Amino acid sequence: MKQPNILLIMTDQLRGDCLGFARHPDVKTPYLDTLASRGISFDNAYSACPSCIAARAALHTGLSQEHHKRTGYEDGIIWDYPHTMAGELSKAGYYCQCVGKMHVHPLRNYLGFHNVELHDGYLHSARYTSVPWQESQKNADDYFHWLKQEKGIDADVTDTGLECNSWVARPWIYEEKYHPTNWVTDRSIDFLRRKDPQKPFFLMASYLRPHPPFDAPSYYFDLYNRKELTPPALGDWETEELLKSQGRVFDSKCGPLDKDLIREAQVGYYACITHLDHQIGRLIQALVEYGVYEDTLILFTSDHGEELCDHHMFRKSRPYQGSIRIPLILSGNDRLLPGLTPGTVSHSLVELRDVMPTLLDFVHTHIPDTLDGKSMLPLIEQPQKALREVLHGEHSYGEYSNHWLVTPQDKFIWYSETGTEQYFRLLDDPKELHNEIDNPVCQNRICQLRDCLIQTLKNRPEGFSDGTKLIPGQPYPPYMPS
After folding, report:
1. In a domain, 469, yes or no
2. Under 8 Å CB-to-CB from 178, ≥6 apart: which residues?
3. Is 49 a catalytic residue?
4. Would you say residue 11 lies in a domain?
5. 460-469 pLDDT per residue, tens
């Protein structure tokens, strides 16, 4: 009998709390809510190195950042790993197709997929005129090639006037069918049309949104423009220094100073999420029409979150929940996921590195012993089992370079440039409104977590720890030296 199929739905920059089933007060996601209602969702899912390249390295290799070596954002480094998610599934007899974002190097590196229909969004390093032609997005990116065929040689995603890291928002200027979110769905559905019916498939539908530009079609902007929106989280520990110095810069790391522009950023972000959700709905309906919905495991997740003006911050890479916490759903019937209670929520601590071993476990094939990730399938029957007690995360980010430890209960943060520390009790304070680093009641726990980080970092080549203390100010490149 043919093995079941796998659909991995990957999004970019989607916060773990911006979903209807996660009880967000404003965002509506009926199709993702459906996936969660028939599966298991994880409310302590994280991206240990929360930016596009490093997060995807964890996803595709099953490795922690200490082993895939990407500790921040840097383009142009060759992806060369002995085991990849698609490569191992291919060995197990799966036809592996990716549609959408890969963000690897070189751009047409397939990482074990049999075929890739590529759209990486706007990549600065691949758009400069000095880039070799074969590595230029104007040549290598399938969506850009298609858009210019459809709309004319000068058509581009920049025609809205928006930048790919900006909080500026406005509706998509072309017909909705030309939007990159629709394109990923269209090409994924076309794969279902032309797939080999006798062979199981692994389809990765890899969407760009809600990563900026915030440019959903007008219908979705209208949904949120007429609503009163919950303002961003603001605690008792932030300073306005960065906001005052950069709050009028369109692509700043703090978001806008103007309250109307903050609201516009929220409207644009939420509009992109609901647009994405509806396009995922199209893909789910196509699975039904092609008769493969009941034979397909669906795994939904994101590479990292978006700060969205929480704590006067924007984008990702910093150690706060808006940036590091991600959605993760395993959805299927009880034949695909034996022992499942539909609608289960697991509080176990999981990470992107766990996706690859989970899928390999699902198809009953060999899991390389070099992987750092763990299969999440045991959590189907035992959702409150602890897959791990603590997770170490980090990001090379200049003056904001950071390391952190998170548990289902709390979080310890260390900024490696300055030595600044923070501590949050997440169970009581999920929005991180109160930094408890100086609270006498918390000192024993803070010492435990600090000591854990000291031991975690003691053999790192950067010199963050000597085994007895944390050492700030060490050089911290985005790719670990050997």
Report:
1. no
2. 147, 150, 151, 172
3. no
4. yes
5. 999 999 999 9
Other Cβ atoms closer than 10 A to 421: 17
Are 147 and 178 a contacting pair, CB within 8 Å? yes
Segment 45-56, tens digit of pLDDT: 999 999 999 999
In the sheet that holds 328-331, the strands lie side by side as 115-118, 95-100, 201-210, 5-12, 296-302, 328-331, 39-42, 344-346
- pLDDT given for residue 131 in this prediction: 80
Indicate whether 419 belongs to any domain: no
Q: Give the chain's length.
A: 482
pLDDT of the residue at 138: 84
Q: How far apart are CA 476 and CA 392, in angstroms?
A: 16
Higher-pLDDT residue of 129, 356: 356
Mean pLDDT across the stretch 64-80? 96
- Is residue 134 pLDDT above 80, yes or no? no
Question: Is 211 annotated in the active site?
Answer: no
* Residue from 60, 68, 83, 103 carrying the catalytic annotation: 103
Tokens 């072309």 correspond to what residue?
A: 174
> Is residue 334 domain-resident?
yes
Q: Which two tokens stand for residue 3?
A: 């093995």
Mean pLDDT, the chain, whole residue set: 96
User: What total of structural domains would you count in the chain?
Assistant: 1
Of 49, 52, 96, 254, which is the active-site residue? Answer: 52
Confidence of residue 1 (pLDDT cuts 50, 70, 90): low
pLDDT > 80? residue 133 = no
Sheet containing 402-406, strands listed edge to edge, beginning at the edge strand earlier in sequence = 391-395, 402-406, 410-415, 421-425
CATH number at residue 305: 3.40.720.10
Question: 274, 273, 299: which is closest to 211 by C-alpha?
Answer: 273
* Domain containing residue 346: 5-388
Crossing angle of helices 30-37 and 259-289, rounded to 10°: 60
d(C-alpha 43, C-alpha 46), whole Å: 9
Q: Which residue is associated with the tokens 């969702």?
A: 41
**For residue 288, what pLDDT is reported?**
98
